[in-house]
Specification:
10 strands; Immunoglobulin-like; 4-stranded mixed β-sheet
Length: 138
């Protein structure tokens, strides 16, 4: 009797998982929801080439500094503009603001899985960063 229950639960778990489910493993840091941190200031970071695969955002950042070992955080105030498609604003904050003038460019990744729940089943969303926007096909 217990074996049948165990296999029933195992079957439900296996069938409940799908290859179509977004996978954010290895995707990077989660989004920070903060109105206070979201206040957009010129932090010397330029954005380009946003791409979302599943729930994983990859974006290229260009910045000046002394070395390329700077951490970045993706920040939003979490306010959704219910336009067509719905829109959210983001900013990428850098860990330190060094006085050096060497230009670095690198790709950073962020986990958008918590953002998906804000969009109430929409099939697209507009992600806006200072100077660049991207339409996310959900």
């Amino acid at each position: 009797m217990y074996k049948l229950g165990f296999f029933g639960v195992l079957l439900i778990i296996i069938l409940g998982c799908s290859d179509n489910m977004p996978n954010s493993e290895g995707c990077g840091e989660k989004v920070i929801f903060s109105s206070a941190e979201f206040i957009s200031t010129d932090n010397g970071v330029a954005f380009s080439n946003p791409v979302v695969e599943g729930d994983c955002l990859s974006i290229t950042v260009s910045y000046s500094g002394c070395d390329d070992a700077i951490d970045f955080s993706l920040v939003t105030d979490g306010k959704v503009a219910y336009t067509l498609p719905p829109a959210l604003r983001f900013d990428v904050k850098r860990g330190t603001n060094e006085g050096c003038k060497i230009l670095f460019t690198k790709e950073v990744k962020f986990d958008l899985s918590e953002i998906r729940s804000l969009l109430n089943g929409a099939d697209k969303a507009r992600l806006s960063f200072p100077g660049v926007a991207y339409t996310w096909e959900l």
